[in-house]
Amino acid sequence: MAFEDAFKYHIDRRNHVMSWQVLDSLTVEDATQASELVKSSLSSLNGAKLLVDNRFIIKNGRPVVFSPEVNAIWEQLQSSILSQVSQCAVLCSGAIMKMQMDRIARASGFIDVLQSFWNDDPSVMKKEAYIFLGISSNELIDRPLSV
């Protein structure tokens, strides 16, 4: 899957929220490109909130997690943007991904601003994430998915 199809993002300047969806497993090259895109986008937001949607990273009907190499890129990104982010909510594809996201956040120092969410009912975890971020909607996350 092309990067543009696997990684979608949106910036809500009114609420200071950068959101992105990962729709497929990312290669190291994809994760590097995503990391650079996030860094450049955050430069224009003060006290940014992040809304990360990993709910769709599923293969053969089962949730999957990022490779160790991609995890390292996410950890480096989190360390480098920590001072620019006030809150980060991550919607996870399963309990194992939730544990992975929490572990990366602990390693990067991002754990103080990050909350990861997992629930069998996607609408419940989305609502919890919105409450955490103090928002009522998000253009990217609320749109129907067309993969």
User: Are there runs of 5+ residues with pLDDT below 50, and where?
Assistant: none
Q: How can the largest sheet be summarized?
A: 5 strands, mixed
Radius of gyration: 14 Å
Derived from helix and strand composition plus strand pairing, the structural class reads alpha/beta
Question: Which outline best applies?
Answer: globular
Q: Largest sheet, order of strands side by side? A: 1-2-3-6-7
Average pLDDT reading: 93
Query: Helix and strand string, N-terminal first?
Result: HEEHEEEHEHEHH
Report strand %. Answer: 15-25%
The total count of strands amounts to 7
Distance between the termini: 10 Å
Number of helices: 6
Helix percentage: 40-55%
Describe this structure in words.
The chain is 43% helix and 22% strand. It has 147 residues and is α/β, with parallel strands linked by helices. α2 (28-42) links the parallel β2 and β3 (48-53). α2 (28-42) runs parallel beside α3 (68-81) and α3 packs across α4 (95-108).
Structure characteristics:
147 residues, alpha/beta, 5-stranded mixed β-sheet, 7 strands, 43% helix, globular
